[in-house]
Design goal:
This protein has ten helices and no strands. It is mainly alpha-helical and about 170 residues long. It is elongated, with a radius of gyration of 20 Å.
């Protein structure tokens, strides 16, 4: 089948990822993922920007099958996708491959994508910028969690400042 055929199929399928038919774009990403050929990363990566979230989800799945550093890098980028299901699938795919986020911003982006809200609160100020970027998310649950966490981080920050000034006054 096409999934086992040689290199020319990668180019043809890569073109199909740009097809006007979303079903065709989804199928092309799936076949490229089944091939597991790292030469397909560029085409599949382009599908992460598709207008159809189902095509983006299939692209995340395909990148997880392809593996390799370029695919992993694209999955890390997908954790900031506009669609919460795409972000979540990218985070869980990376996690299933043993990937761990770097401390700070990347960890915050991962925790947002994974919807691990309590752990995100523990990051404090390091989570503010990635959280603020999600304040207008399409998913009402995400918006609600983001608002709550930003308020909590602000309150904790204000409390730290107050305690710090009280300590200075006592010295």
């Amino acid at each position: 089948g096409v999934a086992e055929s040689g290199h020319p199929a990668v180019g043809e399928l890569g073109e199909a990822v740009g097809s006007p038919d979303s079903g065709g774009r989804k199928k092309a990403s799936a076949v490229l993922g089944l091939r597991g050929d790292e030469r397909a990363v560029t085409a599949v990566r382009a599908a992460l920007d598709d207008g159809d979230p189902e095509v983006r989800l299939k692209a995340v799945w395909a990148l997880g099958r392809i593996k390799g550093e370029r695919a992993m890098s694209s999955l890390r980028e997908a954790m900031a996708n506009a669609h919460s299901d795409v972000r979540h699938k990218a985070a869980s795919t990376l996690e299933s491959q043993g990937w761990k986020p770097a401390k700070g911003r990347e960890e915050a982006v991962y925790l947002i994508a994974s919807k691990k809200w309590p752990k995100l609160a523990e990051l404090g100020r390091a989570a503010e910028e990635p959280l603020a970027a999600m304040a207008g998310d399409d998913d009402p649950q995400v918006r609600e969690e983001v608002k709550w966490l930003l308020d909590e981080i602000k309150s904790a920050s204000e409390l730290d400042e107050l305690l710090g000034s009280l300590k200075k006054d006592q010295q």
